[in-house]
């Protein structure tokens, strides 16, 4: 009953684990702010020392930006389990606006709340608390068993909150060292409180931006209203053409590569505890406004979108200016799913727009915006079923394969550069206020997160 | 041959008239800038003195803003002609940007150009040069004949370039003193060089502005793209619904009160020298974009418009922000013609928008924006035909009744408050650069403008 002993060890050493997490949380490792570069270094040093205390061969590795941390621990000689690569990030978001914090963001506190104990600090949830669930699971496992159940490579990044500029070069330069059988990532949420979740599909993203120019200069609407092409009307007409009246994107070929959600997954989602009414009403919506025929959860996790994020032209000041402006601007992003190809889609969207332009309208596209495909996890691998069972055992609730509306680019990079499938398991809650003031992590998330990883490690090793 | 003598006097005293105009142009009477309040006072004093030199009973009259100038000259005892009210404005636009002026804007210069001599200064055309054409015509007429041919009230405003805040109260408070048989206004252009023009219809204007609110707060497009109503898509769809594919406004009842241009007027316009190709190509257009079936001139002078002057929402900075914004904003103006009722039209436009709003979209209308109906001059009055003939004689070219794309609100106020028809005759050229750097007035406009008024006065007195 090795696992039981490990879980007992986790329970009895929780306070010590929380103390260690507090130590990491005290370091204000804000990666976007150059003034905190030394703090990022200190957080990396802290992690190197912590991994070394587990017996890992760990190093801080320089990059042109914030350092990476890489550590290796071999499993037992007779290990039969996979070689795992665990990823987390030690950098945190800025604390702005500081006035809205009720406590010092870098003086972590355990607080009682109506929903149980929380540890409150910047990074408590995103991602220091989450990454430490895995490290603490390894510590307990080793303490009880003398070694880990399989070979593990730890890989911690310090630039996740600032766009990961060093990540791709580092993965390319260290592909051999970082190769493994499966990546584990702990940077996601549970779909509902108490519902263990494996994020099995992440949407991709396509960014684009265009400017429509009509008249050569701003014109007086008394003289040119009518005869001159108004770019604001032109851009409105084009944006209105992007969707049909059912909310479906009307760009030809847009849905190529989109797959319907399999029935068995759909049934899991229907019962995963997601509260559609609460999700919508919390932002003032009485109903879902996306594609007709799809639930809010399916719209968010498994359907592509084309959304306008910025739109502007003409006069924005007080009162009236009788201008026919020369230009109008639109920023858009698409969320991609399945096998949608960002490059092909970009060409289709641009064609859709250009086909609809009036004579005398000139268009310019921003050439600097990128795209990334959706990532669909390889849930057919036996490790996914093993992890799902382990999580179900810990939480006494069937674990679900969830989607994610947002993007976690590192999963795609692991696949593309290292050829590595990723499994995303996280214990954050929707109300953790990540990126916001008063970020917290539930002590239950931390405690049962550690226990969850111990169970997953144990299951994967078999 | 009284008129011939008067015209000869105008020709022989042109240099003196230009000197007087230069005196007025030297006063930087910028009404929008409080720092120039004393200069506006000085310009009013200058005009009072100049009118007194004609024998007028003239006064500077205080308002809460810049002063008005009112002067009266009786005609001969046996005068049979109408009592005329002449309007002009002595205030000028700011000179910004000063760097683009090639000369001091308030040091008027006579310059030779490829198109003849011009007098260059701020206000040379708008409106000091224009108003002095009438004053100089009166001076010459009186010098030759001993008196004016009819009773004349001069009324000069000093706030035209800053929205005329004191005008309506002043007209109301002094309605008896300002009553007359016909108003003359010299603040308009000739439709083409050398084509004498009487502006017989001015478009009105309706201003409105709305904000559409969707989500209660800005949202992350990864989480809410799709399920949440995007106000940028909503506002684009609504703006796109304002016009049909022929460029006609699709708001129900929009064209109520619009009359087709009578054939005889249409024929005048077709032959008035307006160069559609030049007008459009100068701003980058290869064709007119307004209502199908109407020429550019008719679109500009005699058709109503609904134009978007400002449109904005979401992220406008560099790069991408994956936001579903909470709000989107639209500023619009309509140009009105014929008997279109601004209040009724405002209600129709608002209904059009509100009928098309999606569930969960909230709308707010700016309640502070006004409207004014179109002004159609009473060209059936015999004075119009008399003036047309007088202008045709002076310019050796059939004078035309033109429309105007813009608005001259004072004409409407004269009608509404004083019950006074107005006749708008002006000699400005499209290339006078009013409101722009290097404003000028052709010496020919000034000289033949004075002669024109002398002929018009003579004709009206008969």
Automatic annotation (TrEMBL), chains A, B:
Residues 210-359 form the Peptidase M20 dimerisation domain. The keyword Metal-binding applies. The keyword Transmembrane does not apply. This is M20/M25/M40 family metallo-hydrolase. InterPro entries: Cyt/Met_Dipeptidase, Peptidase_M20, Peptidase_M20_dimer. Transmembrane segments: none annotated. Keywords: Hydrolase, Metal-binding, Protease.
